[in-house]
Amino acid sequence: MADEPRIAAEPLASAEAREAARFAMRLVEDQSRVLNRIQRLIDLGFPELAQAYDDPTCVSALAVLRAAPTAAVAARKRSATLARASRPGGGRRIGQRKADEIVALARDTIAPPELERQIAFEMELLIEQHDTLERQIARAEARVAEVLDSELARRLRTIPGVGPAIAATLLTEIGDIRRFSDLDQLVAYAGVHPAEKSSGQKGGPETSWEMSKTGNAHLRAALYRMALVGLQHNPVIRDHYARKRSEGKSKMNALGHCMKKALALVWGIWRGEHDFTPDPPRPLTSGYGT
């Protein structure tokens, strides 16, 4: 029997696009480290914010922190003032209902008052760093878009949360996806398979996410960004996260599962040759249900 015809390989990314994408992703990684430091300050200066936002470093939470960097400051704010807080450049405001909730939480804070001034000082500087990196990432992504031009890149960018830099990273780090016989092989290559360890009694709901240390670090960084942005903009990722949280998974555990889900979306769109849709058009090959 004659061999089946091979699908012609599509050019993935030029050397210029690869370098532009890696530079953009380094900025994304820098911003992630800044967000981790902001999270530490939240834990010290306004731990109750996690009751108002599942992700206390999301866009809306950062808008609150720009106006009230600590619980003590928030407690002194008029809720009507806090309600008008919004992201830089405008956009959706916090709103009165959320502002009332935040002020009420702040008034019962357990944050140590002796650290308030220092935490507020550090928070202001870190948010400035975050916003500077946000502007630089936008410029770097625009540069990637200038030099990245392929139909596959366009399809990948239909996934909510996938910009030019992430699309170029996926193309560069995965290469020819046909070298992976199934999704599990690609998951192992990326290092996002769910190795979990129980932190409580046997059979208990709380587990910790453990990332493989042998996978592709550049690809994992892209998937982390996809998962993080997807919590706000991708209905598939958002629903998957909510489902994992309802099963008792921790926030980071659920986010790790969302990284694997993001890779399943990439697999389905790349192999299935279709644009993103919340309802997969090809259930047998898409990998969406993973």
Could you describe the 3D structure shown?
By secondary structure, the chain is mainly α. It has 13 helices and two strands; from the N terminus they run H-H-H-H-H-H-H-H-H-H-E-E-H-H-H. It has a two-stranded antiparallel sheet. Strand 1 (195-198) and strand 2 form a beta hairpin. The longest helix is centred in the middle third of the chain and has 32 residues, at 116-147. The relative contact order is 0.11. The model is unreliable at 1-11 and 198-207 (pLDDT under 50).
Topology:
Elements: H1 15-45, H2 49-52, H3 59-67, H4 71-76, H5 79-83, H6 96-107, H7 116-147, H8 151-156, H9 164-174, H10 183-190, E1 195-198, E2 207-210, H11 217-233, H12 235-246, H13 251-272
Antiparallel strand pairs: 1-2
Helix pairs in contact: 1-7, 1-9, 1-11, 9-11, 11-12, 11-13, 12-13
Keyword list:
mainly alpha, two-stranded antiparallel sheet, 60% helix, disordered N terminus
